[in-house]
């Protein structure tokens, strides 16, 4: 009898259906965008005279041009880039904008073609639209956060967002729900001297980055 019960239990387990994890529509959009974009987002580590600076970068050409924040790599003696798969590269500084925007292009030399990001038109950005941010806050690589565009600062030409931006996220993408970059994470505001996030972060509009990248490409820098 005991043998019969064990046999029946084994058969029941063998033929029991396996239920796949279900996600709602919004979750699935976030998952799809993250899986699509994260291979084109890197962490940036700059060795400075007095320590290290950490940030994020967006791969803009398949041969290794990377957009990041200038304050991340300013004064760096060495720059190291780590991809989403953990592969590490030495990087060289290429250019910064003449208009003093907090952007920079650095270059790595990969052995294979890299995944790249795409840019949206930041002129179409509206307060209240949902956005995603990918960055490396405090060294936690490829972290995804979600929020909205909280404000558009037309005087300083930057976006405000409550998507979590923390130290290490500078240079990372702010994405619309189509997976296009509409802003580049730049800074945060809070009472504790920019140590932690309280929901007030700022990003440079993507059109500024697009113009900068185009100017670099015109110089045929390899």
Molecular structure report:
The protein is an alpha+beta fold. It folds into two domains: 81 residues, Thrombin, subunit H; 90 residues, Thrombin, subunit H (Beta Barrel), CATH 2.40.10. It is built from four helices and twelve strands; from the N terminus they run H-H-E-E-E-H-E-E-E-E-E-E-E-E-E-H. The chain is globular and about 45 Å long.
How is the biggest beta sheet arranged? 6 strands, antiparallel, barrel
Q: Into which percent range does the helicity of residues fall? A: 10-25%
Total helix count? 4
Q: Outline the low-pLDDT stretches.
A: 1-13
Domain module tally: 2
Strand order of the largest sheet: 1-2-3-6-5-4
How much strand? 25-35%
N-end to C-end Cα span:
77 Å
Mean pLDDT: 89
Text of the CATH class of the largest domain = Mainly Beta
How would you classify the helix and strand content by structural class? alpha+beta
Enter the CATH topology name of the largest domain: Thrombin, subunit H
Q: Which CATH architecture of the largest domain is right?
A: Beta Barrel
